[in-house]
Amino acid sequence: MLARVQEAAFDFAAEVTAFQSTLTRSGAVVSFTGLVRDDTGSLDHMFIEHYPGMTYAALQKIADQAVEKFGLEKALVIHRYGRLQPGEAIMMVATAAAHRKDAFAGADYLMDYLKSRAPFWKKELSKDSATWVAAKDQDEAALAAWSSESAAKES
Amino acid sequence: MLARVQEAAFDFAAEVTAFQSTLTRSGAVVSFTGLVRDDTGSLDHMFIEHYPGMTYAALQKIADQAVEKFGLEKALVIHRYGRLQPGEAIMMVATAAAHRKDAFAGADYLMDYLKSRAPFWKKELSKDSATWVAAKDQDEAALAAWSSESAAKES
Amino acid sequence: MKLDILYFAWVRERVGHSQETYETSAATVADLIAELVARDAGYAAAFADLSAICVAVDQELCDFNTPLIDCREVAFFPPMTGG
Amino acid sequence: MKLDILYFAWVRERVGHSQETYETSAATVADLIAELVARDAGYAAAFADLSAICVAVDQELCDFNTPLIDCREVAFFPPMTGG
């Protein structure tokens, strides 16, 4: 429904406040924020590359799918690219629905799709190394689970 | 970990911003807000009664359980009581964890426990009626699912 | 034994008050409920369907078999609807 | 057929550039990859493990059997790591 790709930091508080302010039929709002994590204590920064021609449309499509699948009143996706410091917010999603379970499932679904279907690539840079973050098998498994869940419901 | 019971409105955006600002090892923050919903268009206001001697300890216990069960860095629960207008926020939770799935599961778990184990009672008041909101069988089923999940993992 | 008894939500409305101090020798929660029900129609209405009643003894959720030894506060209420 | 080919992340690093215009008669994505691999060691290294390569044709994710009819842009990249 709402999607944005940007290099600049976003103001989570302002985004969520604006998101909530327009709701008319929702009783539940869920938000997720992903932060740059420094597990080893040696991360200098993260660099996120993306596919400018494709990224916005991919985010928009994922958000629309979540809205339709879970009957959301609204969904929001913001994803950054470029250089990010440890602790900085990489991205956020927000979902609003009449009922709690749909808002949670919508946000979880958005995240599963963003992980593996939005054209971003993360590189972790430390003093001694530069490593592209590898996709995980479990990311694809998470997507497959949503499809089989739909198939089960529809059958 | 952090729990608050209050009659006054809270500033959701400010609360989540403060919550995020102290994190040191989390890559994922999930928040949930519950809003007063007016399904029929006839709701005048909601009144929430609580058990002052017990409420804070119950929220604290639920938050501590979520932190331990999902290895959260931090959890926050704020719940209001008294008179609330349609669209107003009733309560919020926030969770922070290294990984996304734990943050989501922690928030979902907190909500399931708050629904049925925190001493609040909601009354919906319209021009013509005053009705106590009934607990749903599915609320207890949701709690039972967490217990059987634990039992399965531990066995 | 002197107890504070608290009532919430529609249990409170049926009983007619939110709190009372009550002298009893009831051994368990179930015994206490039986005594209360015998007092008047309001209590009887409040406790008519025990499957819809929850109880906390000294602010801990428990069940009707819980003994009332050395306890100071008993609270009755419908299933909670937080969140 | 003249194509814009885009490379991202470590595919870009191995190929040595992020974008090029390329003249080809390849019928499918797989045919195009075979042509590229034959060009030099950088391309060969980039496409050494095809299970680690994703492709988008005209900005839609697709697979290696996708035909290249009337397409204008092909992009190669590793599995995405958004979120």
Please, could you describe this protein's structure?
The complex is a heterotetramer, with two copies of chain A (155 residues) and two copies of chain C (83 residues). With 155 residues, chain A is of the alpha+beta class. Chain A has a single domain, classed as Alpha-Beta Complex (Aldehyde Oxidoreductase, domain 3), CATH 3.90.1170. Helices cover 42% and strands 32% of the residues of chain A. In chain A, strands 1-4-6-2 form a four-stranded mixed beta sheet, sandwiched between helices. A four-stranded antiparallel beta sheet of chain A has the order 5-3-7-8, with no helix packed on it. In chain A, a hairpin with a 3-residue loop joins β7 and β8. In chain A, α3 packs across α4. The model of chain A has no long low-confidence stretch (mean pLDDT 93). Chain C has one domain: Beta-grasp domain (Ubiquitin-like (UB roll), Roll). A five-stranded mixed beta sheet of chain C has the order 2-1-5-3-4. With 83 residues, chain C is an alpha+beta fold. Chains in contact: A-B, A-D, B-C. At the A-B interface, α1, β2 and α3 of A face α1, β2 and α3 of B. β2 of chain A pairs antiparallel with β2 of chain B, so a sheet runs across the interface.
